[in-house]
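To assess whether ligand presence alters the predicted conformation, the chain was also submitted together with adenosine-5'-triphosphate. Input:
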Amino acid sequence: MTNPADVAPLISALEQNVRRVVLGKSDTVRLVLTGLLAGGHVLLEDVPGVGKTVLAKALARSIDCDFRRVQFTPDLLPSDVLGVSVYDAPSGRFEFKPGPVFTHVLLADEINRATPRTQSALLEAMNERQVSVDRTTHTLPEPFLVVATQNPYEFEGTYPLPESQLDRFLVRVRMGYPSLADEKAILAAQRERHPLDALKPVVTGADVVRMQEAVRAVRMEPPVVDYLLAVVRATRGHKHLTLGASPRASLALSRATQARALLEGRTYVLPDDVKALAVPVLAHRVLGTGAGGDATADERERVVADVLDAVEVPL
Ligand SMILES: Nc1ncnc2c1ncn2[C@@H]1O[C@H](COP(=O)(O)OP(=O)(O)OP(=O)(O)O)[C@@H](O)[C@H]1O
Ligand SMILES: [Mg+2]
């Protein structure tokens, strides 16, 4: 078992490296790192041009590992993501040609532009960390992180991710616009060239696996477990929700809080970690009735925030 203290310098090196390119947005950067350390996947949502792709690329560049980017389009087929079996005439055998999902960091850009079939193929591979083609199973490499981006305000020609599969993402994160000071700094930083071009890796893929092991060693005392479960359970039967968060959600929140604790330099989880992660981990795992039928993402986030206000925090 990796000691949390051993990986702390690597984690801060990773974070600082990403932040050399992504200016401001410290919470967003941390949430993406939380996803990585917890061994989950990240859904980055926002309007165009706020740095989603740059954040994913900066993270991938900071790790000495394979990186692939797939632009999701309506004509993208499941096999374009997963890979295909091709007939090799000389040997008379089928040979598997791995698709771009066989990588360490996969940027699935504009995932909502692909058809549900292709989305499902990726989501299933993310969940199972393996791909089955022609009855042969191929295991994905480790670490394996998918950062998917989508613009939630774009509807024309898009296929919203199925609600029932959104929970394949550990966290859903918004970017948001930069502050004035950060935007000034962004202009200055890119006056000559993009800072991404000069970014060098600071950790290896094996380091990331060690960080993920260290996350599992982060302690969670019984009162914090009780608090976390009280928050999750309060979403069940909530008057504005038709479906509350599942035990899979409790597990996700628990692993994510361990990762956040480590990012904050602690070896134990605090109720604060639960508070900070409840919305990004839980809001996309509940279903609400909302004003006009289906609750919007905003409404679901508000309900989870209300739940946090209502549940008593242990001392
Ligand atoms: N917080 C930020 N820090 C550094 N650069 C930023 C930030 N926000 C935006 N940018 C810059 O804005 C430009 C556009 O960013 P990017 O391509 O990542 O946007 P995007 O969110 O992926 O957009 P799209 O949805 O169109 O793909 C890049 O040059 C990027 O460096
Ligand atoms: Mg982009």
